[in-house]
Write the structure tokens for this entry.
Amino acid sequence: MTDRVPVETRRQRWMAILARAPAEGLMTLLNEAGGAPEYTVLRGPEGGLVMVRGRAGGGGAPFNLGEMTVTRCTVRLDSGLVGHAYVAGREPRRAELAALVDALMQDPERAETVEARVIAPLEACQAARRTERAGKAASTRVQFFAMQTMRT
């Protein structure tokens, strides 16, 4: 990523990727990127619930859809950098690894390597899965306009 993109935007991107990444994939890629450094768990990993909100019609009045289980974790590297993570479901190891990668991404000395060897491969894998799901969904799409022309 370029330095012109605000740090907050870059962090939102990698946090979103980490939140969707499987624990096995995170551990494998982290080992390939030089392994996990020493760190201390400051909080968690602990499970809890968050309220999921929706909007009527996608843009209307907000409403409470229901609760969702999440796991959160906060870690501190020996260098003092702190990483946070929230992941859907009850997966303590996944939340801990995501928090660790978040802390590593804030380290100027390791950020480029972690971006190239952990974040980018996860992002590519997630994009491929989205494309595959979209293709499957498109193959079941019903074309209703044909019925309109048949009636006239």
